[in-house]
Design a protein that fits this description.
Blueprint lengths: L1 E8 L6 H5 L3 H9 L3 E7 L5 E8 L2 H10 L6 E5 L5
Antiparallel strand pairs: 1-3, 1-4, 2-3
Length: 83
């Protein structure tokens, strides 16, 4: 499995509560493609987020987001660097 990052921007900004309200359509698309959420980061002002998933590849995550009509700016594969 690969680590896949999803970047997003929000206008207007979202609160942490609004950000955590995950659309059920996206959850279903993620589960159907064997994608597991790892963690998310929301900027202090609520205008940007980065989410990390374990998935077969970035294309699979991109497909899940598109099918669920979930917004994203960039989706890319990452390497975990451990000190």
């Amino acid at each position: 499995m690969a680590l896949v990052m999803v970047e997003n921007e929000f206008t207007p900004a979202k609160s942490a509560e609004q950000f955590m309200e995950v659309d059920e359509g996206l959850n279903g698309c993620l589960q159907a493609r064997d994608i597991r959420w790892v963690r998310s980061y929301l900027s202090a002002d609520g205008s940007r987020s980065v989410c990390c998933f374990e998935a077969p590849d970035a294309h699979t995550v991109r497909d899940a987001f598109r099918r669920a009509n979930a917004p994203f700016i960039k989706i890319w594969t990452a390497l975990e660097l451990v000190p």
